[in-house]
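User: Okay, second chain of the day. Same drill as before: sequence in, structure tokens out.
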Amino acid sequence: MAHTFEELVNLQRAADQAHARVEQLRDEYGPPTQDGGWTDEQTAAYDTAWRAWRDLARDVQAAVTEYAREQGTARNQAEADVKTAARHAPTD
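Assistant: Same drill. Structure tokens below.
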């Protein structure tokens, strides 16, 4: 499936948000190896968030690879451009 650059930026933003959620849960819950560990609910929430991040990151990587191939550009440059655009608000 062909993606536009803006679609790639939106995918990267979604992956970044999912990653932020994983980090938030890690900060909130503390280490899973702490005394008492995590509750079953905490473990389930973390696992769900982690899988969402993993799946979104995988989708972004595949889409960027396809986009770079279609555009005839280096994959690493396409990835850097997408990440830069996703992580910096446009200036009007």
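The radius of gyration is 16 Å.

User: Thanks, on to the next one.
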